[in-house]
Amino acid sequence: MKASPPDLAPSPRRHRSRQRERILEWLCSTDRHPTAAQIHEALLPEMPALSLGTVYRNLEILVAEGSVDEVSSFQDAARYDGNVSPHHHFNCERCGQILDVEIPVPRGLAKRLVGSHGLRARRVRISFFGLCAACEAAPDASTISQPST
């Protein structure tokens, strides 16, 4: 019997987890795009035994099963989004805030990808980088922080 490719193989059956359900519930209740450490900090008062490692492991599972998205950021730490509907993100290069952007994918983009590179996208996620309105309005708006390397 021929083995299935890894992305088509059935995902392992996972037991329900109170911690995983609470992490997902909390992520879906916010429009912020927190790091694992921020999620841990937010849930610690109600779940004092929750470890940061448990948060990371459950986020990995939630991302793999499509319940949560991992969001690109110009900063080092991965961010997470409980809103898995198609949308894009704006990353503020000063304060680090990530905002949801509800705009359509430019017409013909997928067709141009096929024509110029022979690649077919299953989904498109666009990340914008700049200053959010609050940082743009700040007196020292000309200085943009650069990602640490």
**Based on CA inertia axes, which overall geometry fits?**
flat
CATH class: Mainly Alpha
- The helix tally amounts to 5
Major pleated sheet: 3 strands, mixed
Rg estimate, integer Å = 18 Å
Instruction: Enumerate the strands of the largest sheet in spatial order, edge to edge or round the barrel.
Output: 4-3-5
Q: Beta-strand level of the residues, as a percent range?
A: 5-15%
Structural class call reads alpha+beta
CATH superfamily (homologous) name: Winged helix-like DNA-binding domain superfamily/Winged helix DNA-binding domain
Distance between the amino and carboxyl termini:
47 Å
- What's the number of domains? 1
Indicate the low-confidence ranges by residue numbers.
1-6
DSSP strand tally: 5
Helix content: 25-40%
Rounded mean pLDDT is: 86
- What order do the SSEs take from the amino end to the carboxyl end, as H and E? HHHEEEEHEH
In the CATH hierarchy, the architecture is: Orthogonal Bundle
Assembly level: single chain
The name CATH uses for the topology is: Arc Repressor Mutant, subunit A
Brief description of this entry?
With 149 residues, this protein is of the alpha+beta class. The protein has helices at residues 18-28, 36-43, 52-64, 109-117, 133-137; strands at 69-71, 79-81, 88-92, 98-101, 127-130. Helices cover 31% and strands 13% of the residues.
